Amino acid sequence: MKVLVIGSSGFIGQALVSRLLTEGHEVEAWDRRTGEARPGLTTHTVDLLGPAPLPQPEGRPWEAVFHLAAHSVPGITWTRDLVMQNLTMTARAFDHLTEYAPGCRAIFTSSAFVYAPTREPVREDAPLGSIHPYALSKQLGETWALSHRNALRVFVVRPFNQLGPGMPPGLLMPDLLARIRAGESPILMRGRNDLRDFLDWRDALDAYLALLTVEAPSGRIWNLCSGRATPVSALVQAVLEAMGLSVDVRFADPRQESLVGDPRQLMEDTGWFPHRTLRDTVQAILSEPR
Prior knowledge:
- This protein is of the alpha/beta class.
- The protein has helices at residues 11-22, 80-100, 133-146, 172-181, 201-210, 232-242, 264-270, 278-286, and strands at residues 2-6, 26-31, 41-45, 64-67, 105-109, 153-159, 161-163, 187-192, 195-196, 198-200, 220-224, 230-231, 249-253, 258-259.
- Helix 1 packs across helix 5 and helix 6 (232-242) packs across helix 8.
- The longest helix is centred in the N-terminal third of the chain and has 21 residues, at 80-100.
């Protein structure tokens, strides 16, 4: 297939481009940074917030598009401008696709943070209502993408906590590794020992590839998750054990919240299922060249 990846420099974007090329697809990648030239890959330096017109498809239209471009680190200082920039990037991309690739599969990457807090595993029809500005930007993006569901085959994916090599600073795993490697003891976690739904990035890529052929109505929404409730402390201990360390870990906030998904809809529609363990994921991250 001819596949466009918008926002190809993030850790999922880079891995997705590589996986698509390995599977034999013709890939076009858009990002604000100049990408690496590879056989089968066309790269464009694109700023979705800038004044320049967006590239049109060369030859036949794109058959599938993954829209990953966004400010995507929840822990940064969020402002109204950042929220509106995420919406603007999505709106510009989907308006462009409607004009130049009508009928294509347009996959919008949202976030599990759009859900209202609950102790139960959430299905796709669970109430929305996070109070975090990052989640608001994703919810607005979903609304804009879904408004194009008659012109495009719009699919929305709500990833939970995806883990893998190449994660940017500001996220849990890279910040934790930096503190461990700096010799911090005890490790004072700034957040809570929340229950989270961690998914290996290779399992996530398997799911994204499955969406290229899934037969589902336009407008379908899927959770992308493992369905496993894992305390943050268990992730920290898995990292320490893999590094052969024994360090005391303390959490600044004694409260515990839960954000765990139910992946059954995606499994039923695609046949996909997650099969890599937390230990598999940690080993892959620690094997990344420093």
